[in-house]
Amino acid sequence: MDTSVSSRRAANSGLKGLRPLRRGGAAGGRLHDEIYAALRQALIVGELIPGQVFPIRTLAERFGTSLIPVRDALKRLVAERALLMLPNRTVCIPKMTRARFQELLQVRLSLETKLAHRASELIRQEDILELESINESMQAAARKGNVKAYLVANHAFHFRLYSVTNSLVMLPIVESLWMQVGPFLNGVFTAAGTKNAHDNHEQILKALRRRDPVAVADAVSSDLVDAADVILARKDFMFDED
Amino acid sequence: MDTSVSSRRAANSGLKGLRPLRRGGAAGGRLHDEIYAALRQALIVGELIPGQVFPIRTLAERFGTSLIPVRDALKRLVAERALLMLPNRTVCIPKMTRARFQELLQVRLSLETKLAHRASELIRQEDILELESINESMQAAARKGNVKAYLVANHAFHFRLYSVTNSLVMLPIVESLWMQVGPFLNGVFTAAGTKNAHDNHEQILKALRRRDPVAVADAVSSDLVDAADVILARKDFMFDED
DNA sequence: CGCTAGCTGTTGTTATAACAGATACACGAA
DNA sequence: TTCGTGTATCTGTTATAACAACAGCTAGCG
User: Fold this and answer.
1) B32: Cβ under 7 Å from strand D?
2) Contact at CB, B104 and A169, closer than 8 angstroms
3) Assigned domain for A110 exists
4) Does B229 lie in the same domain as B171?
């Protein structure tokens, strides 16, 4: 990988979207949690691109804190496999390979269909109403071409569904998987790619209303596969092979 | 949970097995990595029991370091779900519930059979020889009733098999799952519980030699299920229900 | 005697500064 | 021109100390 100063500057330019923390808020708020949340959100909506480097001091300056909380947040994200620690101990967003992408999809299919199946057995009417509301806002974002809002809503839809399982084991794993895929969505989802997602979400909702776990799981599966196909179709040339 | 001083002292007594780090070794060694490795090993072999509390300063004193590297190691283990952060931000080993145990087993079955299947397609002769060697030492440990060595060898056997897949996605997840189950093995595996594991490992090796991925996956599945049955049979009364 | 206020010791959190390793760049010699 | 070397500066790591939140205990008051 190119590690010259100029390329590192270029890689760091993507940090501009990160805003300083508003301090003095509610007491007891840990700084590293806020920094973690900010980075995590940026990861999931594809604002940070693979190869991006995160020097601790740069981020500390950006957030207006000392090194420690930034370090904590980065190390947590590394532990969750959302970020990668290079041999020189600098953190960056891992690049994507075909093998990793396919493995991520395989594991997501396995776990998320399980979660969807179990969720549809436990779901209540109010949960479905909330999912419909989230789906509305996702569709609205798609119509306006607001990719960021679209991805936020899509994430919210899936995890609102999965969270009715109260799973303490699978949920954290799936969240980690989404963070690993997120950066690779950068610049992928134009209006074209949102059509299938909308149809699949409608199928999910329909199957949920009639409490059909198998159909819910199938629809979730289709949703993931279709999204992967969109990415593969547009980004087939963008993988970094080892 | 009881949080009186006396019970906390009792919970901390389990830390005695942790030894100070031998400093001044190879340069470039990060202290928090060594602390992490020590805790991780203790977790996997069941030396640390559920409910165990880890005050940073106590561990720092035990390891002979300052607070920072201990904090790093603990936060990493929390991120990997091996440890749990209590509301007061103290770190402890999570207690086990039936639901969590069953979910852990389900996910492990799903992922580890996949890994076993893929491994048996890629495995080389030298890998099999090494697995046989590990299996030998496991059997020896079982005969001597050395539970700790037995669990170490069992862990080594499984991950030596899985690692031939070079999986960057599933392997870290499965390691996390083993760390979550480890503490619950405390005091479970007497000589009685090791018989099935030995048979299953022999089945795995036999299937590997004839390159039969399905049979390998099945044997791994049986291994996990049998181990779970041993735990359920002996510990059915020891679950902490929420 | 009971209750509340304040002290005390505990916990994790963060800032600052000193440290160590790695890298890039510039200067000088072949 | 090219190669080697030293220095400046960048990186993450760790120690120390100050900080804040919390629980338990004790003393004093009602």
Assistant:
1) yes
2) yes
3) yes
4) yes
The domain of A72 spans 5-92
Does any domain span residue B240? no
Specify the pTM.
0.90
Interface of B with A in 35-94 (CB under 8 A): 72, 75-76, 79-81, 89
A241 belongs to a structural domain: no
Select from B66, B92, B118 the last residue of a domain: B92
Number of independent structural domains in chain B: 2
Is some CB atom of chain B closer than 8 A to the CB atom of A8?
no
For D15, nearest residue by CA–C1' is B66
- Which of A40, A67, A78, A169 best tests the B interface by mutation, with the highest count of B CBs <10 A? A169
Question: Does strand C come within 7 Å of the CB of A7?
Answer: no
Lowest mean pLDDT across A126-130, A180-184, A196-200, B27-31: B27-31
Residue range B35-55, pLDDT digits in tens: 999 999 999 988 898 999 999
**pLDDT, position A129:** 97
pLDDT at A181 over 70: yes
Residues B131 and B230 in one domain: yes
Establish if A240 belongs to a structural domain: no
Of B23, B57, B92, the residue that ends a domain is B92
Task: Work out the pLDDT band at B26, boundaries 50, 70, 90.
Answer: very low
Mean pLDDT of A137-146: 90
In this structure, chain A runs to a length of 242
- List the strands of the sheet with A84-85, edge to edge: A53-54, A91-92, A84-85
Cα(A121)–Cα(A140) distance, integer angstroms: 29
What pLDDT does A26 receive? 42
* A63 CA – D6 C1', rounded, Å: 36
